[in-house]
Amino acid sequence: MYVLAVLAALICAGPFVWAAITTFKQDSDLYRRRNNPFVFNEPPTTDHVELLLNRTGFPTFAWNTLWVGTLVVLLTLLLSVPAAYCLARLDRPWAGRMGIAIFFVYLVPPTLLFLSLSRVVVALGLQDSTWSLVVIYPTITVPVSVWLLIGFLKTIPKDIEEQAMVDGYSRLGALVRVVAPLLFPGLVAVVVFAFTLTASEFIYALAFISPSAEKVISTGVPTELIRGDVFFWQSLQAATILVAVPIALVFNLFLDRFIAGFTQGAVKG
Questions:
Q1: What b/e readout covers 178-192, taking b as 16+ CB neighbours within 10 angstroms?
Q2: Alpha carbon 104 to chain centroid, angstroms
Q3: Are 154 and 90 in contact (CB under 8 A)?
Q4: Which tens digits make up the pLDDT trace of 182-237?
Q5: What whole-number distance in Å separates Cα of residue 66 and Cα of residue 216?
C-alpha cells in the first residue's frame, strides 16, 4: 500500500515538479529535445522569473485576484450560511426541493448564463471593471456552498441550539455563538472552494474585462505570455508555481478541517 501511495504521489506531483524545473531552464536547455526535462542540463537561470515579475502585469493580476477572491468569499459566506441554515433547520416542506434546485443552478453551464449576466454587468455600469467579477462569481459559488453547508448542518444536533435558546439566546445568537464554531470545518471548505474557483475561473473574466490593469491571473497571464504562436513557457510555469504554492500551503494548513467539511457534510444527522 505504501509503495502504491508513493507511486501515486509521484505521478500526481510530476507536472508540478516539471513546472518548477522548467521555470529555471534556459531556452537552449528547454527546447533541445534530447535533454531530460526533469533535470538541469545547463545551469539554471532566474531570467524568466524576473521577466514575469518586472516586465508583465503579474503583480497587478495577483492583487486583483486576491481582493476579488476575498470579497467573493465574504459574499458567499454572507449569503450561503443563512440560506443553508434556513433550509436545514426550519423544517419547511419545500426545503429539500429548494436545496436541490439551488444546487442545480451550479450545474448550469456558464455559457448559457453569459448573456443574462452581461446585461446585469452593463446595467450596473461595471463593464471592463474587476468589480463585475465580484458581482458575477457568487452566482457560481453560493449554490454549491449552500448545498455543502446544508449537509454539514444536518450533522449538528438541533438540541445544541435549542438549549442555547432556552438559556436566553435568540435564534441568530444561537447560530453565531453555538452553531458557527461547530460549523467551522464546513466554513473552511466553503472558503477554500470559493477562493480556488474564483482564482481559476476563465470565461467570465475573459468576457467582461479587457484593460490589463483590471485583469486577474487566469486571463492576464495567458494574454501577456502567449503572443501569437510564441509561448513564454518558463514564465508561464513560474506564474503557475507562484500561484499554486501559497494556495497549497493554506490548503494543507486547514486540510483536516477541509476534509471534515466535505465528509461530515455528506452524512445526514
A1: bbeeebebbbbbbbb
A2: 19
A3: no
A4: 888 888 888 888 898 898 888 889 888 989 899 999 999 998 898 888 889 999 99
A5: 9
